[in-house]
Amino acid sequence: MTLLRALKLLEPGNGHPFTLPVFRDFEAMDLDTSVTFLVGDNGCGKSTLLEIIAAGHRLPALGQQAVAEHPLMASARAALPAFRFVRSAPVRHGFFFRADDVTGFLQSVQQSRREHDAIADELAGSIPGDWGRERAVSMARAQSEALKNRYGADPFARSHGELYLDLFRARITRPGLYLMDEPETPLSPTNVLALIAMIQDASAAGAQFIIATHSPILMALPDARILDVNQSPPAEIDWDEVEHVSLTRAFLNHPEAFLRHL
User: Fold this and answer.
1) 187: domain CATH number?
2) Of 20, 93, 107, 34, which is closest to residue 60 (Cα–Cα)?
3) Which of 42, 130, 168, 204 sits in a 20 to 30 Å window from 178, CA-based?
């Protein structure tokens, strides 16, 4: 059973995002699968669909800034009255992932650690009494240590692929609704396979994923539904029929022919 079963358009509005191709004949989009991939050309509306779903569920972006407050999500928030979300249960956990948010998020984690350490140092010399001082200092130190254990002493010391995978492991910890916009961007093919395994484990435990992607490897995840957002409304499509898959296969079979034409 999925948390979000469908997205329905009640009454299209004027201007963006309703001018996007995906909303031309849009009525509803079935999401009653634990993993749904949104595929299509750039500009067709994949990211906008994720933004609308994220805004409708007030999911946090990676920087912990609620989508309800994110400055880049203004059009998605404004469009919400035109949509209805069909749910089987309340969405209490999850996030909205965009690769662009990762650096800012990890910088905020490092800043939080520095602030907790500074608070601990200040409290150690300012609170009278051994018991009260030790308790306050230990609480501040514990907050800093918890962030270190979850995200590492220096998250930026790792490769981009390792950093992203570790971030997913730290944040996908319980059943919820997880939205990802091209998570394959910084990942090697091997790390994309690792992400597939992570998604499989989490979905088996009750998590739901809606993922916009261009990766033929990622969208090959077993039992996932692939929706072609080039069509309005988005229509289910087999992996073999996805343009990214056929183009990649053709290139790998005859790279010299493609390069000669280029």
Assistant:
1) 3.40.50
2) 93
3) 42
Sheet holding 225-228, edge to edge: 94-98, 177-181, 208-212, 35-39, 225-228, 235-236
Paired sense of beta strands 83-87 and 235-236, if any? unpaired
What are the backbone angles phi and psi of residue 236, rounded to the nearest 5°?
Answer: -65, 140
Q: In whole angstroms, what separates CA 236 from the centre of its chain? A: 21
Q: Check if the beta carbon of residue 47 is closer than 8 Å to that of residue 181.
A: yes
Domain span including residue 26: 4-99+175-261
Nearest by Cα to 209 from 88, 37, 87: 37
Task: List the alpha helices (DSSP H) in 86-177.
Answer: 102-126, 130-151, 160-171
120 within a domain of the structure (yes/no)? no
Question: What's the pLDDT at 7?
Answer: 96
- Which pLDDT belongs to residue 254? 87
Helix H or strand E encompassing 180 = strand 177-181
The per-residue pLDDT for range 54-89, each reduced to its tens digit, is 999 988 876 545 555 666 678 888 899 999 999 999
Domain count along the chain: 1
Residue-by-residue DSSP string for 40-95: --TTSSHHHHHHHHHHHTTPBBTTS-BTTT-GGGHHHHHHGGGEEEEESS---SEE
Is 126 within the bounds of a domain? no
Burial class of residue 40 (count of CB atoms within 10 Å of its CB; 0-12, 13-18, 19+): buried
Q: State pLDDT tens for residues 207-262.
A: 999 999 999 999 999 999 999 999 999 999 999 999 999 999 988 898 888 888 77
- Inside any domain, residue 119: no
In a domain, 127, yes or no: no
